[in-house]
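SAMPLE LOG
Freezer: B-3
Tube label: C17
Construct: single chain, 589 aa
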Amino acid sequence: MVGLKEELLKSIWHAFTALDLDRSGKVSKSQLKASGVLSHNLCTVLNVPHDPVALEEHFRDDDEGPVSNQGYMPYLNKFILEKVQGNFDKVEFNRMCWTLCAKKNLSKSPLLISDEDAFKVWVIFNFLSEDKYPLIIVPEEIEYLLKKLTEAMGAGWQQEQFDHYKIALNTSREGLSAWELIDLIGSGQFSKGMDRQTVSMAINEVFNELILDVLKQGYMLKKGHKRKNWTERWFVLKPNIISYYVSEDLKDKKGDIILDGNCCVEALPDKDGKKCLFLIKCLDKSFEISASDKKKKQEWIQAIQTTVNLLRAGSPPPHKEARQKRKELRQKLLAEQEELERQMKELQTANENKQKELETVRKQLEAAAARAAEEEKKRLQTQVELQDRFSLELEREKLVRQKMEEQVAQKSSELEQYLQRVRELEEMYKQLQEALEDEKQARQDEETVRKLQARLLEEESAKRAELEKWHLQQQQTIQMTEAEKQELENQRLIKEQALQVAMQQLEQLELERKEALEQYEEVKKKLETAANNTKSWKDKVAHHEGLIRLIEPGSKNPHLITNWGPAAFTEAELKQRQKSWKGKKATSE
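STRUCTURE (predicted):
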């Protein structure tokens, strides 16, 4: 009943929109009468009892005028369509709706089809249109209808022509209205070369198949059940019944063959002078039919068997099933297209997000590059500053070094002057020998030690000369002939022994020299003690030059200078000796 209700609503929608309702769908007071007439006509053709009170109650008047909270369609659903049982003439119902809307909407320009053919095209449009309002027929269903009409006219289908038309249609809108479809077929654009009668017959054939559910029709001979005579009848095959009439005008119906899943059809051999026989078996009766030729016989057997198989499977008629499949396919394609669009939007959104991320990364890279360039600029500036600073430091260091060298030269000059003063002091110390007996004796001892050291050095030099002489003799001996080698080897051994003895003596002399140095140190100490005891001479020396002081020409490791050259002791030892001198001086005073 849901499918029937949708088919009825499409035809009623055309009639309803012809009432000139306002956009809100509400019925004004002046239109209430027209709505009542439409409702009465609908109830009449649909065999539904009409209730005018319900209509007036639904559109109740008040001080503001007619009131309709939901409009005419809810009333139609509740009080008319819900009561439809299916026992009505579809053609008569459609013709009533067509009468109400055709005059207003049908094109005034001349068409190649009659008004009756236009009515049939309008009904076919309601069958093939989409289940949404305002009603339109999509290009796929237009192509299906035009193919059916072309096939019924026996012409060839012009696919390329329709493709051009479809492209032009898709660029402007989704489909055609019923009146645009009538104009398209009535213009003869896809039926060129065909006369009006051929086009009309094709429209009638498609109308019978799609609207009246006529699966097949034609003249055949039927054998009677009582008199057993053969009579020509016009047979009409529908999804659950075969009706036969006196003629094709369908005015005088002679009977029906009720089909169900238990029926079957089978071919019969020729008999009684009749050819192309087949038998239709039902539960209560069997019918013998004779077709005009073998082709018609086979077509009828196949059509009836297909109808019985559909009844067994509970499937709708082929054209309705095909329409449902096309609709499901469009819905599937639409869903896939929507899904594809959704995915494309998601991809576009993801792409935009990626573009934004890339733009952000690009900006970050640009910022990083700018920061790096700034840092590089700062680094180069810092490097230049460091180079300038280093150059300044280097120049300063050169100046400092030059100043240090000047100071070293000055210190060297001062050292020379100091050495000159030391020599003068030595002369002064010599003059003090007569006044200082202890110092004189110490100097004599020192002289003795010096002589001893000199003697030892002379002996060491003599030994070294003797060793060199022996070495020269040894070299001369090596150059002797082979006959003298043995004797020379013996002499060499003797001389090596003598050399070893000389080396031992040299080591002994070295030890004696060290002892002499130790004695020299003791004498020096005595000399220092004697120097401390000469206070008057010390004052004179201090007045003349000052105390013996350390000379530091700039080196980090200062060298101490004595009367006899560089000191053999450290600064700490000097301080210790100074402390000792001061102690002895205090004791002597």
